[in-house]
Amino acid sequence: MEQAVQLKREVPKRSVRQIIKVLELEGFAEPGVLRPSTMQRHLYDAGLGKKQMKRYAEKRAASSRRFCRAHRMELLQGDIKYGPELRTTDGGLIKTYLSSLIDDHSRYIVQSEFYDNQRREIVKDTFHKAVLKAGKFDCAYLDNGVQYTSGHLGKACAKLGIRIVHAKPGACQSKG
User: Is pLDDT larger for residue 105 or for residue 63?
Assistant: First the structure.
């Protein structure tokens, strides 16, 4: 039975009859000794029954579908986050901001860099470096910050064929 469970885990689409045939061919059981109903019962007890596997596959497909796009560079998510405060040589503090673009499919950080301000120029710089590093992407998902809603970014992306989608105001959960 341990071999049967292992065979089912290796290839979940294997039927009970196929598992019995493999066990007989490999010499783990004599031909005709194993019954499909007995094998089915043992696989079900191990959590590998047909309905159990189907339920698991459905839940897996639904959960992973919610959080990522199907292909690489199909959608990049961009945001600006607060970074650490740095002390200057004269003792003053400078706030830093992290501007990032992350691929939604692979979670690969395409471009990320610290800046000392939150102006729209840092977003332009982040997009420019991302395109140079990884090539053109299809769509960018951004929040409604002033840096992302400027006409300059929209025009530049339109010329490249990059669609910009903004999160709904107040929908924090959509931005993670």
Answer: 105
